[in-house]
Amino acid sequence: MQQQTEPQITSLPLLIDKCQFAKTCNDGEGVGFGATLFCSSSTPRSSSSSTSSSSSSHSSTIRNTLTILLLITTLLLLFRLLNSTTDEFFSPGLEHFSLQLGLPPRFAGVTLLALGNGAPDVAATMNATLDSQEGYLMALGELTGTSMFVSGVILGVIVSLNDDRGVVVVEGNDNT
Question: Which residue in 119, 92, 145 sits closest to 111, CA to CA?
């Protein structure tokens, strides 16, 4: 009988320093806030300066927390701007376009809005397949990832928020 040996798990060395990566990613241009976030406490310190090291580590923690809060606030502001821009410019244009075509607003929302939402995916897929010989792999991954996200996360949120109300079927003429 052969004796099976268990595979040994060894720790892999850190391949690249976070600070170095933040400075050199994006074709050497780096990330604007990456150096501030990752390089603030990366300098080696001697063991004799333990009090200055702890105060410096505390200030870098505060700086990192403030940077993350600033980024989250900026993200929320950008979502709010996107919402107001859509309300002011996209929705009236979609309504006017649907009225010119003689489409009911619900049909326009289901079709035209979906076409506008899927256009970046189509453009990215076409660009990936036309750029390189293995671009189809990235396109296939993007499309399957999107469909898994929508069917898993979005559908899961909708079902969990449903509160056992069931499916509502609207019958009749859609003249709204």
Answer: 119
Q: Given pLDDT bands bounded at 50, 70 and 90, which one contains residue 44?
A: very low
The span from the CA of 121 to the CA of 139, in Å, is 9
Would the pTM count as exceeding 0.70? no
What is the Cα–Cα distance from 145 to 159, expressed in whole angstroms? 20
Q: What is the DSSP string of 61-92?
A: HHHHHHHHHHHHHHHHHHHHHHHHHIIIIIHH
3-state helix, strand, coil in the chain (%, to 5): 65, 0, 35
Per-residue pLDDT tens for 60-88? 788 778 888 998 999 999 999 998 988 88
